[in-house]
Amino acid sequence: MWVGRIEEWTRSGQSAAEFAEGKPFTSGTLTWAASRLRNGAGGNGKQGERRKRRPQKRKIRLAEVIRRPSQVTSTQKVVIEVSGAKVTVERGFDRLLLRDVVLALRGEK
């Protein structure tokens, strides 16, 4: 059935959308069936007529996740660099004071 439809479509010189208009199939189905026939599938869905493909080997890559306990100490520091100046901030710092220092380094009020 599809061989006949595809031959008729080819002879018509129409696009798939034009040819399929008003017919009981879509242009997508028409082009799909044509590609299946071109690739040797026969268009009838039988397994024996399909092109045999070699199964692809999939590579599986494993990664080892190592969890280390965090070492939170009271001496942890963060160094902030603003406009070429470095400010070291330790746990328990005064947030408002740090904000004022950063604004001053930026030249803001």
Structure characterization notes:
The structure is a single chain. The protein has 109 residues and is of the alpha+beta class. 37% of the residues lie in helices and 11% in strands. Strands 1-2 form a two-stranded antiparallel sheet. α1 crosses α3 (27-38). Residues 45-49 have low confidence and may be disordered.
Itemize the secondary structure elements and their pairings.
Elements lengths: L1 H11 L3 H5 L6 H12 L38 E6 L2 E6 L4 H12 L3
Antiparallel strand pairs: 1-2
Helix pairs in contact: 1-3
List the keywords.
109 residues; single chain; 37% helix; alpha+beta
Global morphology: elongated
- Helical fraction equals 25-40%
Low-confidence stretches: 45-49
Count structural domains.
2
Rounded mean pLDDT score: 79
The total strand number stands at: 2
Beta-strand content estimate: 5-15%
N-to-C SSE string, H for helix and E for strand: HHHEEH
- Helix count equals 4
How far is the N terminus from the C terminus?
A: 82 Å
Structural class: alpha+beta
Strand order across the largest sheet: 1-2
